[in-house]
Design brief:
This protein has nine helices and 22 strands. The strands form four sheets. Strands 7-21-22-20-19-16-17-18 form an eight-stranded mixed β-sheet, with helices on both faces. A six-stranded mixed β-sheet has the order 1-5-6-4-3-2, with no helix packed on it. Strand 10 and strand 11 form a beta hairpin. The N and C termini lie far apart (about 60 Å). The mean pLDDT is about 95.
Amino acid sequence: MARRHRRRKLPQDPVEVTIESLSHEGRGIARIEGKTIFIDGALTGETVKFLYTKKNSKYDEGKTVEVISSVSSDRVEAKCQHFGLCGGCSLMHMAPEAQLALKQKTLEEHLTHFGNVAPQKWLEPLTGPLFGYRRKARLGVKHVPKKERVLVGFREKGTPYLALLDRCEVLDQRVGARLAELGEMIGQLEAYNRIAQIEVAMDDDHVALIFRNLDPLSEQDQQALIGYGKANDLWIYLQSGGPDTVTPLWPENPQLSYAPEQSLQLDFEPSDFTQVNASINQKMIQYAMELLDVSEDDRILDLFCGLGNFSLPLAKRVTEVVGVEGDEALVRHARKNASNNQLDNATFEQADLTKTQLKDYPWAKAGFNKILLDPPRSGALEVLEQLADLGAERLVYVSCNPATLARDAGELVNKHGYTLVSTGIMDMFPHTRHVESIALFVKS
């Protein structure tokens, strides 16, 4: 007979501890009778009272309920009224400079422990707006009878349930200030309990909301959504199934676009991958070109290129850019963006970069002297050996996961003859534990 796992009973009374250090996620670390406890909302050097939230065999977890004494100058008053309840932000009680220091320390320790490498130079962090910066988001929607309302927003910290939120301070306020309003609007629809989520995408001038409808909407509900969109200058889309079912409801032919730099305009669909932070994205593109040290004679390979975010600014400055991307729809959009911007020296290819042999393609046979790659969280391990074979003297790696960057950096340095010249963090997601970084490798 299978043995049932008993849920460990949690102590109900607050416990007092002193915080020794911070984890990579920004949680305070304390020890009781030799056992490690990770405590949300606590900072190094503070004495706090906390409640247990989870007990595990090797460590426990908790949340701060009172700061008894603090010697930390890093503590600030959280700007968001929902901080501590909402799972979206975990570092809002920490000063921005302290957040940056934690993220750089996280990257440094990952490089040491997982890659056995260290940069010759640390780059200054890229920073931007601290609030209202987020232009992409997926908002949960749930009718909760006990609360007699429709909730719109993010999950509670540590639970699968949606938090009761009125607003979000890190979302662009064209949507961030509307969470309660959106819930009230959906609550008046016939399909109030059949809307599963809202996907948000914005450019400088427009806001697109994709409503995931589990059933076809009545004409009355469609008109209600159109009316809400018109009244608030919001573009309304419906999604009845997978990503290919996203359809504009109002206006008839909407088109989102953004400028990665002046004199360039990239069109995108609301379900396309784009960077959430427009300010950091612009700075990141310029940073990448500086690190690549681009010149008009360069032939550059841009891997995981998306819809041309890096490729097209590069194409304005070099002889040729080849962008490679696994998502066929993004490749189509990248080609269209190249045509719209009259950049005939940028070509785009669709290929699964976890399986593809790049050298088998005609466009790869001439080689590349420089490479840029911006892989997903899983990193780029499968293509690293191929990159070394292409003869690139300079490689810039943009990362959204310090663990896989560290692993890949170890491969490039210790197996493929590159030197990690410089690296640094980019604060794409202030107040969260997310670490975005950029690194320059040069052939030894």
